Amino acid sequence: MIDLHTHSNASDGVLMPEALVQKAKEIGLSAMALTDHDQVSGVSKALESGKKIGLEVVPGVELSSYWQEKERKEFHTLGYFINWEDQELKEKLTFFQEKREERAKKILRILRDWGYLGEWENLQKIATGSIGMPHIARTCFEDPRNKEKFLKEFGGIPQVNDFVQKYMLRGKPAYVEKTLIPPKEAIDLIHKVGGVAVLAHPCFDLSQGDFETIKILKEWGIEGLEALAPFRTPELTKESIKYFSRMAKDNNLLVTGGSDYHGIDGIGAGLGFLEWGMEVPDEILTDLKNYKNIQ
Ligand SMILES: [Zn+2]
Ligand SMILES: [Zn+2]
Asked: Which of 48, 144, 260, 275 registers the highest number of CB atoms within 10 A of its CB?
């Protein structure tokens, strides 16, 4: 059993890379990939701990991108076996990191106008890796000055999702557009650093029957589909795995799989899909390595 899609606290996961690797070993996985959002700072630590405890770790990343022509739809591209120490990659990721920070500051300013106070310094403490909307929400939750306002509007401190949905999603008052690269550039960047480019969670980003998009992505150099990705419920997931595995096969693409684990148990499929009683077989990694000519 393996898991090729995980997040550490170098992006928006909860566990440190070392702890994530440790957990993967404990639950019986034979390999995992660390694929933090637009961030590779956890890779070295994950590889080191993997070596120490005897768990194979694949260096990876998950790049976010907007597809301008498709109503700025967000697409995520996974990169496997990347050279995470490449200078150009690091510079590109730093640029997006800075844009993320600018965006977070803007959101904090707007929330302030709506009566929710949050300090940049506190946000930085809460978000150990790249800043996401849940971190901004938590910054407001933990600020005692907002207690009354939350009580009045939500009857107490709300769930992260409820607050994010009410204020930070597109069309809501504190929505600020992200700066992301186009999907083709994401694929090119992964190739440039020697990686295999795979479309993440097609169950969310690709409609079933959307052969046109897959054709374009293939022309741009996508090499695999993460057909084994959790999709809402175990039942829907089984159906979607079947569908996208077939789609990958028909398009001569690799099939990969991972849980998109963020370090919180009880949400989603859990590390290795195990909480849903499913698993990602070792052969997926063998195929990926054969394709890359890695022993
Ligand atoms: Zn994703
Ligand atoms: Zn992810």
From this structure: 260
Ligand nearest to the CA of 76: 1
Over residues 68-104, the pLDDT tens digits come to 787 778 899 999 999 999 999 999 999 998 999 999 9
Domains: count for the chain:
1
C-alpha torsion 167→139→14→17, nearest 10: 120
- Cα gap 206→201, rounded to integer Å: 8
Calculate how far, in angstroms, residue 149's C-alpha sits from the geometric centre of ligand 1: 33
Distance from Cα 88 to the centre of ligand 2, integer Å:
22
User: How does pLDDT run across 61-72, given as a tens digit for each residue?
Assistant: 999 998 878 777
Report how far ligand 2's centroid is from the alpha carbon of 5 (Å).
Answer: 6
Query: What is the SS3 assignment for 28?
Result: coil
User: Global pTM?
Assistant: 0.89
Tokens 């190739």: give the residue.
191
